[in-house]
Amino acid sequence: MDGLERGDPRRLGPFRILARLAVGGTATVYLGRSRGGRAVAVKVLHREHARRPAARARFRDEVLIATAAGGPHAPSVLDADAAAAIPWMALEFLPSATLRDAVEHTGPLPDACLRHIAAGTAEALGALHRAGIAHLDVTPANILLTSAGPRLIDFGIAARGRSSTADGTPGFMAPEQVAADAGPESDVFSLGATLAFATEPDGELRALIDECRDPDPTARPTAAELTRRIAALTSAASQPGDTELPTGVREVIAGRQLAAADAPVPPWTPTRRQLLLGVGVVVPSATGALVAALAQDTGRGPSPGASRGATPSAAPPLSPSMSPSPATPPSELRFVVTGDGPLTDLTYWVNGRHTTLPEVARTWKKTVVLPAGTDSVDYRLRFTVHRGAVEMRVYVNDVEIQEGKDPSVVPQELTTYPFESGLAGSADTTNPVPAPHFTPPAIHVPPIPSFSPPAIPTFPAPHFTLPSFPAR
């Protein structure tokens, strides 16, 4: 678990974002907390992928498949917004370790423990296959080991029916998956490869793993058959307690559960605006300095008992020079869109409430005053661009927290119009984080060189002299 970085969201939907759990090639998973205090895992598509229609469509499919798969075999989907400018999905948080982490942490797992994991994972695959879903990425990194048994995660490339793409993790893909013709039988092959990674089993379990990894898909057992056969092996060979995870893995899971329950809230510091307005900010370790400052304003020395770190027994009386600090002013959210040409179908959302404008001219600006006491804001902006480029900026209390440009890198002459654009995010209004400024590299499209055919050389016409013949 890592702290948040600049540019990470602070709130998505009803969830406050607390820390990073994992970063993948297309998405980042954050630890979040609901308003009621429930820990959740929030998967957020990377911004560069959110601009690609194919990636957005795949994320939308992942949300639908993960929702169908959620339950005893996979984390449940609690909420999602696949249509957001930056799509996200909130899932049940499961204190766990991946099978890959467990093997790397403790070495190969005991056979009895591995049989228990294999049976649970095969059962999960059987439930998916009955629903017409193929996972297509069964790997040690996508099996979570929890106190209640294994759970399958990451349905990013899952498919309903068969898949005609060669996506997957090398080393765990079935031959037919590499050939872009994958289905439920491919998951069985991947499970066999995963079990072989986790240990070096002997006897019947080794024979079963070899069957799963048969190059011929029709020769492999189904997930349901595999579940029955592994369960029979487990009940016949195991003693009570044999199926438990190794002590080191259980300690890792317990530690992650405690860390999630006590995840630190991202630090808050007063903004320059609040300091200039005199909004009271008291650092506990500096209470003595505060007493001295108050005493200087009132013309009295500190009380004899006041010392560094001590709490004054009573606040000094107010004098004309010590009027109460002004109340914190309401926060403001401001959108600014500049460019050339009009925008159509512009909609902006602020904390769930939206407004739609059929057409606006550039430059377009909108300031929204937030109710007093609002400590965070979720926002979203969407519109249609018909020509040219557009630049977007979002400010909270005059601090620029997000910027964007569309098209960002592709030259305008290669852009297809009209196209939909926008941005979304969340911010802490008490301490907005300035947006990092990034200048995308310019792409130079060289002009097509002109072509002049080479000159065709000319040659003088040959001169022939006809011979003369004597007259007859």
TrEMBL record:
Which GO molecular function, any one, fits this protein according to its record?
ATP binding
Q: Does the keyword Nucleotide-binding apply?
A: yes
Pfam families, A to Z: Pkinase
- InterPro entries found in the cross-reference section: Kinase-like_dom_sf, Prot_kinase_dom
The annotated region (Disordered) lies at: 296-331
Please indicate which superkingdom the organism of origin belongs to: Bacteria
Which keywords accompany this UniProt record? Answer: ATP-binding, Kinase, Nucleotide-binding, Transferase
Q: What sequence ranges are listed for the domain Protein kinase?
A: 15-233
| Ranges in a coiled coil | none
List the protein's name.
Answer: Protein kinase domain-containing protein
